[in-house]
Request: fold
Amino acid sequence: MAKEKDPNLMEKVINLSRNRGFIFPGSEIYGGLANSYDLGPLGTELKRNIKDLWWKTFVQKRSDVVGINAGVIMSTLVWQASGHLENFNDLLVECKKCHMRFRADELGKDSCSQCGGNDFTKPTQFNAMFKTNLGPVESKENAVYLRPETAQAMFVDFPEVVRSARMKLPFGIAQVGKAFRNEITPGNFIFRLREFEQMEIEYFIEPPKTKKDWEKYFDLWLKEIRKWIKLVGIDASRVKEVDIPKDERAHYSERTVDIEFEYPFGQKELYGLAYRTDYDLKAHQKHSGKNLAYKDVKSGKEVIPHVIEPSFGVERTMLAVLLSAYSEEKAKSAKGEEEVRVVMKLPKAIAPYKVAVLPLSDKPALTKIASKIRGDLQERFVTDYDVTQSIGKRYRRQDEIGTPYCVTVDFDSVEDNKVTVRDRDTMKQERIAIAKLGEYLEDKLNA
Ligand code: ATP
Reply:
């Protein structure tokens, strides 16, 4: 069953996410909160693993990138300097009949989707930043904003990082964390949220003398993004790179490539790559009055570096990963009947559970060994333990959530101190000595 052709893929992924505890609607016992989602036990592991893999790939394994962790609330002056207070606006129109608001650029010639009316107000500006107050007094002076992107902290903290980490150009500063946008039209499950997470890098380079000098780094980062897409398990055949024309780019960008994914609801942005020139450091230098130049230790020369920014959304990654990993295969049940096997073919590195321990029955002779094995494996991996239902059904449950390995403890185990290890993708089974199990799984999971 080719997943590209499955018209119900989105629905299936949403249902599975909910049933198995990946993602469910937030505040549901109170009727929910529009477009908010909570992560259940499996979703929490998946997200953690994606962020860890990203950090390992782009920070831990690179000598030229370091991380920071800044506040969600920063000085309002940051958003003045960055242009967000002035420019982070959507043009909105309001239906005069039912007062529903729409983004002017999305409405086109359509009538109101809420009431069918077609009389709208003139477009007005609406700032997408969430506003709150610092301290108990609600006043203009105390107004602060939840960050709409993680990027600005990398510019604001630039001198501290250069000084403390002694970074030499070219180098990057990375951050993973929450961002908030009061989106007018959130939706498509976790695609467009008002509270989400970003993984961003600001990669600082020498001011380019020619176009080639920055294009070189732009291309390098495009390659890194392509590699990441494969690594995290996003179906590359459904990814398109779109060069954004000048009139559609952000005011600071000299070149933007949107990395788009063919979601079931259309081809939409997954990630972005932008050449932000020296716009941000210059803007912050001007507004703060502080010198944000980078001083070359050898030459003593001061320059304002230029910036290449790869930007990744965590939830959009999760959605693209789940849509890519979901597969249905024809299989035979234990009784020999034809059935559909649902498998989440997640890369091992991001699978929520790495291994599930399944005693064949709930006889104490087996559960005693199985509990001991589980205890040992828990030291190394996030592990599940399941003793209810037939073994075939339990395998299917683990396939559905992407668990790479199942360990079955049967009556032979009592005699030979061995267990059966079943592979999620091939369904092949191997007998492994309990004493060597941890190491065996470690090798397999790191392969
Ligand atoms: P879009 O055009 O879809 O609104 P954007 O161009 O505003 O996205 P950026 O400002 O480039 O997005 O943000 C960088 C990344 O953050 C995006 O590529 C996406 O992965 C993620 N992102 C942005 N907005 C949201 C949102 N509302 N919900 C979830 N992820 C988001």
Remarks:
- The mean pLDDT is 94.
